[in-house]
Amino acid sequence: MSRRGRRSHGAALALCAVVAVALLAGCQQAEQDGGTAAEEPRREPRGHLVTTVVTERAPVSTQHERPGTLRLRRVVRLYAEEEGRIEQLEVFEGDRVARGELLVRLEDDVLRAELDKTRATLAQERLDLKRFQDLAKRNAASQDDLAQARTALALAEADLKLLEIRLADTRITAPFAGVITERLAEPGDFVTKNTQLLTLADPDSLAAEVYVSELVLPHISEGDPARIRIDALGSRRFAGEILRIHPTLSEANRQAEVEIRFETIPDGARAGQFVRAELATAAVERLLVPFRALRQDRDGQFVWVMDAEGQAARRPVRTGIRIADQVEILEGIESGARVVTRGFLGIAEGKKLTRVDDDAGPAIATPDATPEDVDSMP
User: Would you indicate the residue range of the signal peptide (predicted)?
Assistant: First the structure.
């Protein structure tokens, strides 16, 4: 072999040695990398992040504020029961009157004259009856004559009683102690029968009238305490109680009228003033969820729950009354259900869920949840 051939052969051997060393190093590095990958545990994909609350039934007493108006429950309209000219009418709107106090007097001259005539007729009929009785004892008068005399006396007595009643009707007195709210005639006016002259109201009958929903009515009753605020008198609330619950509901809004009376009627309270009444219902077992957990679509209201397998499930519900930031669930879920309250964006039926936090308790630590995840949840 020539010198040149020997040099080429040596160079080829050197190149093969370098390649072999490189391949060996690569295999060792691959083994090391493969060992590290085999030792690292596989990372499980995390579920959809949500916050939840566990539902439970609890006795709840609710407060309801209803607008209303002050009304006088006892109001009497006084009418003329006889015709005649008004001779006396000295009371005005706002005047307080006592029970039995004379309010109106009509002229009665004609009636008194008729009364005197009837009294004279009555006296004569009594004499005639006595005379016929004496004659009948001597058989000088028939029984028919005696019967006619008795009938005439009875008619005269009836006429006298009728005139006495009519004469009393010319004087109108207060049927109870109260306040004059209307004066519709003046002295000297000639009035006919059934003409309204005055309106008398009992100030102690002042009460608040409010309208209450049919959902609340089953949980209140007569005698329940209430508080009344009169806007015209400031922010003070006055103690009261439910006096009467009307038996019928309005077909327009399904509400019934409720009357509330004051324990002590405040100074300055007047009929027609706007009021706000606070009613407290009796404690009732209710299933409540946060209002934000309630969803709505074209099929109606529903909530998302986390089932036993940790998956999302859609539950249609029927709701009752709303209490502050919570709403009552009447149908659809039971006590103990885990209801989703946040994290609705991207949620779907059967999707795996991961609880980040519980609204009704301390945070639950999960390896995949971070504070930044909670802050970014819808």
Answer: 1-30
Of 270, 277, 280, 278, residue with least CA distance to 233: 270
Handedness of CA 342, 328, 301, 332 (dihedral sign): positive
Largest CA distance in the chain: 201
Q: Nearest Cα to 225, choosing from 274, 262, 273? A: 262
The pLDDT-based confidence of 19 (bands split at 50, 70, 90) is very low
C-alpha to C-alpha distance for 123 and 119, rounded to whole angstroms:
6
Range of the domain at 266: 63-73+204-284
Main-chain phi, psi angles of 146, to 5 degrees: -65, -40
Helix H or strand E segment including 303 = strand 300-306
263 with 120, same domain: the answer is no
Q: What is the pTM of this model?
A: 0.61
Same domain, 211 and 248: yes
Q: What is the mean pLDDT of the chain?
A: 85
List pLDDT tens digits, range 296-337: 999 899 999 999 999 999 999 999 888 888 999 999 999 999
How many angstroms separate the Cα of 27 from the Cα of each of 35, 101, 118?
Answer: 12, 123, 145
